[in-house]
Design brief:
The protein is of the alpha/beta class. It contains nine helices and nine strands. The protein has a domain of 130 residues: P-loop containing nucleotide triphosphate hydrolases (Rossmann fold). The strands form two sheets. It has a six-stranded mixed sheet, sandwiched between helices. Strands 2-1-4 form a three-stranded antiparallel sheet. It starts with a helix and ends in a 15-residue tail after the last helix.
Amino acid sequence: MEDEKLEKALSVTNLAIFFGSEVILSNLNFEINQGESLAIIGPNGSGKTILAKALVGTLPYTGEVYWAPGTTIGYVPQKLDIERNIPLSLMDFLRSRNDGFVRADAAKIKECLKLVRLPEELLKKPVGQLSGGQFQRALIAFALIGEPKVFIFDEPTAGIDLPGEEEIYATIHRLQGEKKFTVILISHDLSLVYRYADKVLCLNRESICFGEPEEALSQENLEKLFGSTRQFYRHVHDHGN
């Protein structure tokens, strides 16, 4: 039993989160194997980001969150508001990743920038002048400096145009193939779930469904999740693309 548990990247049992007397999430049970992709979906206010914050230990909870021994986590937020005129270059921003455990020297920064396919000349540019897509890839590079075994992406393409969105998700998918890390992706886009996720967790203050997308995302479960008046369309789920 212990050997089987060590193969899991994450195992969550009877998780509940409260704000005062209000129940935000309850009775969550799910797991993800090392190297897999888990998509967390649900309507606005369903608790997706709150769950992510609990998983990384920034919100209190009851129940059990078990990470595999030695797990390091890279968290890429939905957005990080930067003043357009702030005198902070991309190099300065990435160097700020130094925290006593991670060394963000110039060589490491350039390596991570190359991984997300951003040109080195951007290192001299103020972060406030980067495009939305460039800055999101910079956030991925920021997380990569810590060499995480698990990446948590909280709707990383919010506010980015469609070509930029495709590029971000292609980057995530490519890096997972190269680095073999585990991915937890919060998204509202069902087509991305079918394309990139091994498992899906459907949330609406509680678990509506959990499993492989083709089985979990039935019409019945989607209606429970989003409401019976919405129309849904299945998309091909192909890890090869």
